[in-house]
């Protein structure tokens, strides 16, 4: 007989029937009834009405029945909080049962009942269980502390359970140690500043000892915890590594990956010339390779991590190319990841093999896989110069297959190959041109257009080819439109005589008939450039392009370091920092690798610049399309290796512009002189412009930075109204209310002290706890006269920012102690972070641009400010009063974008983009900062300043 | 840290059973799982991790079930997948087969197991042999007094109970080596006038390795200490001995009973074995292996009319050895029909649902060569759906022989009662991932 029979009763009076059975005297009948209840619960029926009846069955000596009742309780206690109290007694009793299984069961279930009311009744039983003689009960109780902390953190702290938990790290039983570590890590993760896991060499030693003896899961808890530790010096680092390496031979892949995480992190501290360092590198490869024979999902996690490891330490797997060859029956997600790693490992030594494989893959059937394989061939050409020729001929073979998506991918990569090896493979252009018609994807079309424009002088019918694209100009995607515009301008500069009409056509299409601001802007710039100074135009448009980098899609080094600290976790699978996908983790410290070998000094340096471990300059990355202020040098498909400032725009001042300048004549030859069409064409441009620019017409670049004189005089820094920080009740009659202000560059704490007690108060003094920005009183608290009952006094305390620093949660939290003749009182308050914005926080425009591009997009955060009824100028004015400086303003379709910068007292720069849509009271703020944890506070300040 | 909740779903995405461990993810989120999966499938980008808002699903599929873990934290993904596979293992040991019916038939035990296997997202005891000591399917028969926590659960030796007794103390050791090879066969598409075919046999081996596994069946009383000696080259180099053939193991993985730090320091494999069957260790050897069964194939496709297949299999191992249950699986176009076969030995069969010809040879002596010819008709209207190029795969088993030459030199068994115990050793070599790519 199986349990499935319990699912079959679905009659009408079922609940009623069950009720009767639950209250039956017969044990067997009771148990059958509870099983039916659980079965109903399992299929999603609501059986909460039976709560009292089921709970009545709780007192039983039948373990199976008890388990079922407990299961029921866990599910329904939350919906019946009042009745859940009925269960408390039994829990308390069960926690003292002679059978450890029952004690553990009770303590385990207790923690799962997330009802606030009953938690305090559970403290006593929990306390006993934490000290239970049976390790099975202790290990269960350890986890229960984490559960309780999740429901009521304060209670757990007050009851001293955290200390008991810490003591369990020294427990004699390894399972207990493992669970205590897991519980502490869990609590520490949700309370990053709790300092719970203050790992010191002694605890580390205990953990390493337990590591040898506990279950596979316990080993993972311990290894993950170890990964958070920073050894004092390279010797300690080495000794931990030595004790962790045996884990690489564990059969469980998760144990292996967690061990790899610890080793990858601690290796940073080892001197590279140390023999052990080389040994360790050698030891890492075999286990990583073996992970590829695990189940496909585990393989996937392993491959995503290997991708990171290969970027950080390519030497580990450089001889292991073959194991990444794709197998026919690999799932697609495994195939794509293997391919990615193959490209990263490709080198002169193995390129022949790699190419043979890639060619094989390119004839498979799975479209995504094939595309990636074709692209990979192109990457190989760029990465390994010796192979370029073979790669190009392979690509040409593939183009001959005429398989549509293969051809398109091939053209996209060939364009990059042209960039990398100029004047070498252009002979293939003819073949490419044959396939023009089959290109239907924007990226491929854009690539082809780029090629035609770039090599216009070698392609006889370049003008015809480009003209054919022009017919459907408005149906093309932006990418293709921009490329077409640039290509035709190039063509014109190379063959001016035959292509005037074409260039005018495309310029008017781009500037007059298009709604796309980027396209229009670029159109105008070319137009003016051509009309003012064609020689300069030639220099700009046909400038020599910087070389493209060899590596693709490299992860930005700081992010890579952070991800290495998260090996094995979701972050490492997504290749995103946890803050990007875990709610409420914005304030959490980003993990980073410890400093490099031999430095011996503290590694806690909060320096935002790259850690000492990465001494090499970060390699340039080929970024995705659509960088912020798109680049005008027609390099948008393969942007430059350096983010240089925009070209000088001296010749572009409208006033001085000679619309039909002699320069153009010289380019076009004498016969152009009075050509009405030409003159008309170029002359028309400025007339059309004012309509689309809000600011007075100025150079195309300038409009990005236009301040338009909108910013008036600053209005003084925003200071929030005073609030009560310390109520009289809590401070024996002393009430303190206060606020913060920044006056002429000095942060001030402005307080009102009121004596609500019966006696006189004297001898005031003040102290701050360490805080995130090192705020400290710049002088003593000046309360000169004694404060008599019912008297108030206003005090201003100037502050400086040179005090001791400790990160607070929230960041702008300040803990203050005030002393008087009666006692010492403590309170905490939060200061608006705008108090810390320095007066010299206005960034140079070009620095702003470069910095904005330089800060990775992961660090960007967006906020909405609702119901703000200022126009953009007023907003900018107001913000400037609080040292938030507007550097540039740009208007696009009625939306004003303000680019702003500010600088914190500790030198951290913040960049912002504020979008204001006329008539829409909701603003959007995008913040970019190298220390993204401040974003939340800054946003609050924005809101406060704007709404005040 | 790991999972917030675990779900078992049927193929339609209906929740069969679930357990909420942490309560920080809404249990209703699972309703998005199926539509997400379908969406990914449509895009051809299936992925073991999927996100809906800030909820992440990590899932595996087993027979007609999905096992899904949800989380909203930066969980340890490898731990979650290991745990899900462990669930499958434990449920399978409990119910023989893990499928929709067995979950429904045993929901009470499933709940009990879910409660015991994981607590607040932390995996706990997952050794099914130990679990079976205190979570049984005949719960009703249990007396309270009988259900005590087996000390094993929290012992340092968490995989073996005390007080095991056998009349005859024996341990069986199976050394099983699987050969993985990836071969690229030379172009097999031959001009159709060739009658007698002599294809050059130098197809190239792209990659090959050996995955070995040492399995134990332990029938020993008490708490025996075991030491296993292999002809491991590192060990021999360490001890300075140098006799006979040794083997270099690239990477070794051990059952949790083996003292890893001991192995790390002096290469000694010492352990207290779990009772009954278990995999003691696995190893990988990265050498160039000569494919034990070599295949040459000529596949001629005459569009709109027929396909002719000729496959030659050759045993490239010692004459004294015999490969058993050899299966050569040759892919054929999906629209092929009316099969005809001719074999020099064994038996060929068409498996239309897999688009394969399976040629079975019960016993294949070393050094011999066999031939199979197959003929298929093709429809005159061509199937224009692109088809992949599946490889030819081979399955076989060769007893009394290991490719790597690994040997068990000794197995020392010491128990405090001092009984004599016998170790028995068996060697088998079999095919692992044995693929031969054709160019057709």
Automatic annotation (TrEMBL), chain A:
Residues 837-947 form the Beta-adaptin appendage C-terminal subdomain domain. Its main location: membrane. Residues 585-622 are annotated as: Disordered. It holds the Pfam family Alpha_adaptinC2. It is found in: Endomembrane system. Residues 718-828 form the Clathrin adaptor alpha/beta/gamma-adaptin appendage Ig-like subdomain domain. It comes from the Eukaryota. This is AP complex subunit beta. InterPro entries: AP_beta, AP_complex_bsu_1_2_4, ARM-like, ARM-type_fold, Armadillo, B-adaptin_app_sub_C, Clathrin/coatomer_adapt-like_N, Clathrin_a/b/g-adaptin_app_Ig. One of its GO terms (molecular function) is clathrin binding. The keyword Membrane applies. The lineage of its organism: Eukaryota, Metazoa, Chordata, Craniata, Vertebrata.
